[in-house]
Amino acid sequence: MAVGERMSKRFARDESGFQLIELMVVVTLTIVVMSAVLLLLENFQTTTRANELQNDSQEQARRTLGLMARELRNLASPTNELPEAVERNGPQDLIFLSAAKTKPNLSLNVRNTHRVRYCVGSGRLYRQEHNWTTATASLPAANTCPATATTNGWTTGRVVAQDLSNGTRAVFSYDSTTLTRITEITPRLHIDTTPGASPAETTIETGMYLRNQNRVPTAAFSATASGIEIVLDGSDSSDPEGQVLTYEWLCTSASTPGSGCPKTIGTGPVYHWRPGAGTYGVRLKVTDPAGLTQTSATKSVCLAGIVVSC
């Protein structure tokens, strides 16, 4: 019998099994492999959960911007004489007047307007309301965000977006620093549920056009010398909302003191002025029904006479 065959039979009859050291090696390798698998699974679950939270915060921010856009489209002036519908244009604090959904019985608030405030505090965007049933109501104090409802007349602040990472960066941008000239507002929300870690910060941004905002009219005119008069024509003036304007003609300078230069020359879209021979500086001031005004640049016009040539 060959040596190899004898050894094979001997191993076949051997029932001693694995040695302890061999079992220890197998168990150790199994633990290492399982630990690595569990660690990968845990990291996957953590990453998935972080992405879900980031997506949830982004979706909440998108819904909030949609709500804000609807309210800004319903922008409402309190009266014709007070067209200031945007009352605060802070980089992280916006207050404006909008049309309320329902009007209480016996309310003296004819236009049923209310104030809406969006402000940032502690990484959250809050929404508050100020409602009233009197004829008018002044803007209540609102220096903290959210404002205290019990003392300042605002409703309890409701969180409409969270996990903001704007820091000192502006949330609201405006196309003008003058309240009555604002026609577009751009909210920009930076979202980061895990600062300094993955997933990275994302930005939700949109532009909102204030279609109901009353805007300043444009003053433009021509001044033509004709015979013994100067024809002042303001028909080139316009109002963005197509409202009827009032016209006031102003004299700013005259070539000689004797020619006369009244502060107000006259009124009306077209005015025929007979000041006497000389050179005059003329401006036009236009006003819309809400009281918004614009005054044009000065134009110089010469009216010839016996001793005056142009």
Describe this structure in words.
The protein is an alpha+beta fold and 310 residues long. The chain folds into 2 domains: 54-209, no CATH class; 222-303, Immunoglobulins (Immunoglobulin-like, Sandwich), CATH 2.60.40.10. It is 22% helix and 30% strand. The chain contains 3 helices and 17 strands. A hairpin with a 2-residue loop joins strand 10 and strand 11 (229-233). The radius of gyration is 38 Å and the shape is elongated. The mean pLDDT is 86.
Number of strands: 17
Give the termini separation.
140 Å
Radius of gyration, whole Å: 38 Å
Task: Give the class from helix and strand content and strand pairing.
Answer: alpha+beta
Number of domains: 2
Low-confidence spans: pLDDT under 50, at least 5 residues? Answer: none
Largest sheet: 5 strands, antiparallel
The percentage helix is 10-25%
Q: What global shape is seen?
A: elongated
How large a portion of the residues is in β-strands, by DSSP E? 25-35%
Q: Can you give the mean pLDDT?
A: 86
Order of strands, main sheet, comes to 1-2-3-4-5
Instruction: Describe the oligomeric state of these chains in a short phrase.
Output: single chain
> Which sequence of SSEs, written as H and E, runs from N to C?
HHEEEEHEEEEEEEEEEEEE
Question: How many H/I helices?
Answer: 3
